[in-house]
Amino acid sequence: MLFSGEVADKIVESTNEIFTGMVMMEIEAIDPPAEPIGQFKNSITGLIGLAGSFKGVLAVHFTNDIAMAVTGSFLGLEVEEVNEDVHDAVGEIANMLGGDLKAILSDKGKDIQLSLPSTIGGEEYVFNSRDVGEQLLLAFKVPAGVFYVEAELEK
Amino acid sequence: MAKNILLVDDSSTMRKIISRSLRQAGLDFGEIFEAGDGLEALEMLEKESVDIVLSDINMPNMNGIEFLREKANRDAIKDIPVFMISTETGEDIIGEAKSLGAAGALKKPFTPDKVSEVLGPLV
To answer: ipTM of this predicted complex?
Structure first.
């Protein structure tokens, strides 16, 4: 099991560390949905790919409202629209989580390569896994709603 | 004299956060310059008076390792210290950065306290 309790716990811990230490926002881990969400509305997803000894993707899914609140708190300013700063901040959160996931899976670091972060977003889109690896879905509550961290990996 | 800092990161958010953390850490520094990748950083180093570089590793066009390698070949800028600030913390990668002249590394995410502790002696 790639995503044993210990690995999942460490990703929860990393998410907490990023939000409390850098975004300056308190989050609470809650029970995730039983199935992947798949379809998103008025949302932004930050993505980072892993290649090498572990292959897959880590994604963080925010509604637009949460993404704006997160970006505002991250940068210490009011954010009223989903702009370039919001996409950049969401990508950077995915980047930090991807870096932590890599560190969890590999001490040395050279056997796993990280892609550059990217974002997708819009009124309605589908995020489908390829169903070829092991999947993890985590949910976190913030004042503006619930966001999700999703990973799919194969060895 | 307060030292000028060059921040190298493809994320504008991260450049702002590092800049804010330096201020919150109470460190005394001069001007802050910004570059979005290693290529821009090399251009900036050639034309501005920079005392310390804080650089990401995972960047487009020219990453932090390639930047260190190229900088080491340029006499005018090769002695400017570079500190890596990255999600990449694997000992192989940080070891390679140090072998190319990096003065140290700070892991993202970081807090202003950590910035002060790690970068204070440099700044």
So the answer is: 0.89
